[in-house]
Amino acid sequence: MKAVRGATPWSWLTRAARSARLWLQELGGRTIALLAGAVVVVAAVAVTGYFLSRTETTRRLPDTTARSYRDVDACLLTGKDGITAGTVAAQVWEGMQDASLETHVRVSHVPVTGEQSAAGARSYLRGLLQRSCDLVLAAGGPQIEAAEQAAPLHRTVDFVLVGDGGSGSEDTGSARNADSGKGFGNITFARPGDGLRAEVADAVERQVAARG
Fold it and tell me: 22, 70, 132, 187: least CB-packed within 10 angstroms?
C-alpha cells in the first residue's frame, strides 16, 4: 500500500498504458476492428446531425423583409366566377395587386354567390362596407348597380366601377365625366379593355394618395 501511495504520476501513466495494451491484446483483432467501426459510425451520425440542425436553423430564420401595410383597404366585389383567369375581374385584381406593391394598401376580393342580381350583390357589398373597406371596386353588372346605389350613402368610401358605366342618374352620384372617368361624388369609372389593369392600378393609387 505504501508503494502505491508513493507512486509518481509518471508511474501511474505507465501502469495504465500497460493495462490498456494487455486489454487490447486479449480482445483480439476482430473485436478491435468492430469497436473502431462503431466509433466511426457514431462520429458520422453526430457530424450529420450537426449539419442538419444548422440547416434547419437557417431555414427557420424569421423573414426580415415582410411587408408592412398601410391602414387602407381596397376590396373587390365580383360575380360568381371571382377572379378566374380571362375575366374582367382578373384584370382588376391584377391592377389592385400592382397598386398594393406600390402603395402597400391591403387588397382583397369577394365573389357574389347565389343569385346574380343587384339584390344578391347588395348583401355582399354591405359586408365589405362593414369590414371598413376604404375603396370598393365592383366588376360586373349586378355589382356595379349595387355599388352605385350604395355610394351616396357612404361618402367616405371611394368606389371604382368597372364596366361601360352605370345608370347615369345624377342623384346616385353616377353621372360620368367622360374626359377623366370620374363620376360626381365618390365614384370613378373604368372601362374594360387592354389598359384596364393599369387604369385600375392608377385609380387605386390616386385614392390612396388622397387619403394621405
Answer: 22
Angle at 102 between CA 101 and CA 104, to 5 degrees: 65
Task: Indicate if the pLDDT at residue 174 is higher than 70.
Answer: no
Contact 200, 137 (CB under 8 A): yes
Going from the C-alpha of 98 to that of each of 93, 103, 181, the distances in angstroms are: 9, 9, 20
pLDDT in tens, 121-160: 999 999 999 998 999 999 999 999 999 999 999 999 999 9
* Residue 19 C-alpha from the chain's centroid: 67
Q: What is the 3 state secondary structure string of the chain?
A: CHHHHCCCHHHHHHHHHHHHHHHHHHHCHHHHHHHHHHHHHHHHHHHHHHHHHHHHHHHCCCCCCCCCCCCCEEEEEECCCCCCCCCHHHHHHHHHHHHHHHHCCEEEEEECCCCCCHHHHHHHHHHHHHCCCCEEEEECHHHHHHHHHHHHHCCCCEEEEECCCCCCCHHHCCCECCCCCEECCCEEEECCCCCHHHHHHHHHHHHHHHCC
- φ/ψ of residue 108, rounded to 5: -155, 165
Could you tell me if residue 113 is left (phi over 0), alpha (psi between -120 and 50 degrees) or otherwise beta?
beta
Q: Is the pTM of this model over 0.85?
A: no
Residues 6+ apart with CB under 8 A from 200: 91, 92, 94, 95, 96, 99, 137, 160, 162, 190
